[in-house]
Amino acid sequence: FRPNSPRFFECGPSGSRPTVEIIRGELMVEVRQTFSDWASHVIRLVKGMPYIEVEWTAGPVPIHTNWMEGEGDLGKEVSLRYNTGLESQGVFHTDSNGREMVKRVRDGRGPSYPQPLNISEPIAGNYYPVNAMIGLEDKSKETAFVVVTDVAQGGSSILDGSLELMVHRRLLADDSRGVQEPLNETMCGCNDINAPPGQMGAHGHLGDGGCLCEGLTMRGRHWLVFDHIDSANNQRRKLDDLLNFPATLAFAPPSVAKEAKTTRRDFLEQELPPNVKLMTLTDNYKNARGSKPTKTLLRLSHLYSVGEHSKLSLPASVSLAKVFAKTGLKIKSVEETSLTGNQPLKQMDDEKLIWKTYEPWNYSHPKPYDERVYMKEEGFVVTLRPMELRTFWVEFESS
């Protein structure tokens, strides 16, 4: 990813306007915008939901686009940019593998970088991986803008108050990184056919081998949250779960459905706290080497990091005996283990190497909760610190 200029091109001839169609219903308002025959999106306002949905469609990305002022035959990276009036001062945050939010500063690097800092890649040097969400804040207005994604993408804030995500790309030349082909995926799987094995055409450009197939079409969704900072930080975690981990639907033949004794069943006696998520409940490891033959793997996680929310970032306590108290899923015993479930948690902590550390200079971030709180045997009460994950081998009573 090395764009030859910071210019943001339109998806059609300069000055062309997108077609707009507005559909209003009782539960939703939908705005359909088409920018060209290969770029469009649908904006949805769903009744009662705290977000704006943008369903984007990009592709097949064209090769020959003369309207790009002589630059049309180069590779193209398609990004979706959202502009706001917020003053973010060049600061934005991206998630780290769907977990803690990491502060990013435009054209900024850590103190280990040579000074003065030479910014040779103003676009690529400011793009970061976005697995689940990207956001920015305006402290003076106490307002935040967040984009929740349904797939991992590259993202940045090139302009103040602006967020952008790369949703598609089609390159016509090899980047000399070892793959020996341009990043040009097509519908038929070719890019430089008729070239010798392990090689490309004469110069590694599209068409040297005669591939004329259409490029891929991509589609995805972004959920936009524009709210007070505390409220936005609350909503983005819930929306990430809703978008990326939806309920799994299962269907049965009508004959089976008619014989079912009940049409609804709740397995939990008590709701989990709003900042705790049930990550894993599986029997897949019952027969695995080293696992407990009669026990089930249970994993809980704290959804918020230190300082992310005024209330939800505090430690949360859960009584597993009260949550799992219904017939069929009534808990009998619990063994607290390391994250991977291969040794008791207390044993792991006792044998862990204690590193000599020191407080960084000018450390102004909220202080973490350093001391782990082990499970209380009475009621199997578990206390999770911000961002903490805990794993257990549990045994349920036979129904």
Q: Can you offer a commentary on this structure?
A:
Helix content is 8%, strand content 32%. The chain is built from four helices and 20 strands. It has helices spanning 229-244, 254-259, 320-323, 345-351; strands spanning 19-24, 28-36, 39-46, 52-58, 76-83, 91-95, 101-105, 128-130, 133-138, 143-149, 153-156, 162-170, 218-228, 276-282, 296-302, 316-319, 325-326, 329-337, 381-384, 389-396. The chain has a nine-stranded antiparallel beta sheet with strand order 1-2-3-4-13-10-9-6-7, with helices on one face. It has a five-stranded antiparallel beta sheet with strand order 14-15-20-18-17. A hairpin with a 5-residue loop joins strand 6 and strand 7 (101-105). The protein starts with 18 loop residues before the first strand and ends with a strand. Mean pLDDT is 85; it is low at 202-209.
Please count the helical segments: 4
N-to-C CA distance: 57 Å
How much is the radius of gyration in Å?
A: 26 Å
**Class computed from helices, strands and strand pairing:** mainly beta
- Strands across the major sheet, in which order? 1-2-3-4-13-10-9-6-7
Strand/helix succession: EEEEEEEEEEEEEHHEEEHEEHEE
**Strand segment tally:** 20
Enumerate the spans where pLDDT stays under 50 for 5 or more consecutive residues: 202-209
Shape: globular
The largest sheet is: 9 strands, antiparallel
Overall mean confidence score, pLDDT: 85
β-strand percent reads 25-35%
**Secondary structure: helix percent:** under 10%
